[in-house]
Every structure is written in structure tokens, then in C-alpha cells.
Amino acid sequence: MRRGGAAKEWPLVGFTLLAQTAVGAFWALTAAEAFFASEGALFLDSRALLVILILAGAGTLLSLFHLGRPLRAANALANLRSSWLSREILADLVFLASGAALWLMETGGFGSAALRTGLMVLGAVSGFALLCTMSRLYMLRTVPVWKGPHTPVSFFLTALFLGPLLAAALTPAFDEYEFAARWIYVAIALAASGLAFVGMALFTPTVGWLSRPSPTLLAYPRTKIMSHLAVRAVLLLAAAACLLLFLLRSADGSPAPLSLIAGSIAAVASEIAGRALFYAMYSRVGV
To answer: pLDDT tens track of the chain, all 287 residues?
Structure first.
């Protein structure tokens, strides 16, 4: 049986959080553009796409530092039929490629509306596939602490929490449609913060109300889990309070940018704390 830790897994912490944030922002901006299509509103512009590509690309580069031989990373694509790692990498590359193609179309001013719509759908679907394969990759029989619902729940909630906040930052509220979209983004993030709090209480391995005790002998100490959870709970509550203040003041016509900034910082900090705990609890049964 082997025990890991969060200290040596920071490349994966960065990769998972950056990739999930990029996917969540792409979903939010795509949904807003589809919803306001009749108004001709453009949310996935070149600036927003560039930021999403930088985040997703940085996450992909960070993941290479986890490999023993980064220069041989292309070999990980050789086993798509049976390897979830290969499928994760393929989904990541398709997501990056679709986003890059959209960015080139926006900056170059070429391509049809149908092609643009097709690339948006491809990006949204490949982003969903990336989160699914990422979740499945970690749900190993030899790592019981990751095999439960905690893994996919936390990965998708990160996308629904941080992604809309990034989309709100990328959407300038110059007209009523952009203002409405930003309000909806923050409302979704606020709801996701509540779901993250509930999910943490229900599904956190070994301490959650609906979790099963870990069968490993090297289980992460319960006191340390609770201390991590206490920090994350405080950060989640702080983020929720700031986001709620932003929504209330926005409804009265006040922009309240400081509330959004503070809420976003607390949200990112809470997700880093949660992901650090995720890797710290790693313990492997067998060789």
C-alpha cells in the first residue's frame, strides 16, 4: 500500500483546476450566445477565447511536469481503446483545437456562421468529454478514496463554479444583454458554491455523511481532513456572501465590481483548498 500527498501533485492540481475553469467558461459563454442569438450578441469573442485557450493550454503544459518523461507525452495517445488517460488527452486536444479554430475565425474574420456554430458545439462536447474522462481516470479500484461520487461531483462543480465567474469577468456589461448574462453567470456560480458546500458535507471520503469508510490502512487523518474542510467552508461562505452582495447590488443598478472580485478570489482559494485535500487523501492499495 502506498501513500501520496498534495505537495508533489501541484502540477495536477493546476491542470485539473485550469482545465475545468476553461471548460466551464466556454460552456457559459456558449450558452449565453445561444440564448441571446436573436439579438446578435457575441460572447465568445477573440479576447474571451484567447483567455480560455491560455488557461487550458497552461493546464495542459502543467500536466506534463507530472510525467516522468515529458518529451514522450505523445505516447500517451497510443491506447485509446482501453486507456482513460489517452481519452482524456484526446478530449483535451480537441477542446484546444476547437477553441483555437474559433479564435482564428474571430481574429481573421473568415468562416461561415454554420462553421462557427459547429466549432462551438464541438468545443462544448469535447469539454464535457474532458471532464468525464478526467473523472473516470481517477476512479481507480486501487485508490478507494477516489472511487466514489466525490470525484466527478467535485470536478463538475468546479467547472460550474469557477467557469461562470471567469465568463462574468470576460463579459463587459456595455448593454442590457451583457449585463443580464453577467448576472446569470454570477447566479450560477452562487448556486454552485452552495452545491459545493453540500457535496463537501455529503461525499467527502471517510467523513461525509454518505461516504463509506476508506478500507486503506494509510487513510488520511480525520483531524487533518476536518481542518481542510473548515478552511474550505469558510472560503465558500465568503465567496457566497460576496457573490450574493454583487447580485443584490446589481439588481439595484450598482455594478459592485469589488464584490465580484473578492468573491472570485475566495472561490478560487476554496477550490485550491479542496483540490489539495483531494490529492492529500490519496492512498493506494496494492502495488
So the answer is: 345 555 568 889 999 999 999 999 999 999 999 998 777 778 999 999 999 999 999 999 998 876 655 555 566 667 788 789 899 999 999 999 999 999 999 999 888 999 999 999 999 999 999 999 999 999 988 888 898 899 999 999 999 999 999 999 999 877 888 889 999 999 999 999 999 999 999 999 888 898 877 666 567 888 889 999 999 999 999 999 999 999 999 877 777 789 999 999 999 999 999 999 999 888 877 65
Burial class (CB in 10 A: 0-12, 13-18, 19+), 176: exposed
Q: Which three cell numbers stand for residue 166?
A: 471567469
Contact 123, 99 (CB under 8 A): yes
Cα(22)–Cα(26) distance, integer angstroms: 6
Chain centroid, CA 21 distance in Å: 4
Q: Please return the burial class of 146, using the count of CB atoms within 10 Å of its CB with bins 0-12, 13-18 and 19+.
A: buried
pTM for the model stands at: 0.92
